[in-house]
Amino acid sequence: MKWSFSNDLPIYAQLIEQIKTGVATGAFPRGERLPSVRDLAMEAGVNPNTMQRALAQLESEGLVYSQRTAGRFVTGDEERIGEMKRSLAHGHIRAFMAAMNSLSIDREEALALLEAEYRKETGEDEHSDM
């Protein structure tokens, strides 16, 4: 997994977001064992205590769980993962809407831009009647 950090949020919060994204995209598959705290921290280039804090938060949210001697695992709960995906999507939508508002782009134009970009990304013909 590729890790990247910015200066606008605490590192542990960015780790949480990136691990959630990893679960959503399958980089950390449902029901699979996560690498150790030390291995994840080394891979991400962060302090193990920071990674531990992020994983503890994810555990409290029910996205990962611990087995005493076997390590941490991604939840197998499809409903929980679905909720997490929707939450991530809402965050991206809020950021998109904030950007559109700052550009004084109204709802209709924002939706039209979004639809056009979606069609471009998916290869759909813009003039199809789907």
Polypeptide structure, described:
This protein is mostly helical and 130 residues long. The protein has two domains: 11-76, Arc Repressor Mutant, subunit A; 79-122. Helix content is 59%, strand content 6%. It contains five helices and two strands; from the N terminus they run αααββαα. A two-stranded antiparallel sheet has the order 1-2. Strand 1 and strand 2 form a beta hairpin. Helix 1 (11-25) packs across helix 3 and helix 2 (37-44) packs across helix 3 (48-60). The longest helix is centred in the last third of the chain and has 25 residues, at 78-102. It is elongated, with a radius of gyration of 18 Å. The model has no long low-confidence stretch (mean pLDDT 92).
Search tags:
single chain; 130 residues; mainly alpha; Arc Repressor Mutant, subunit A; two-stranded antiparallel ribbon; 5 helices; 2 strands; 59% helix
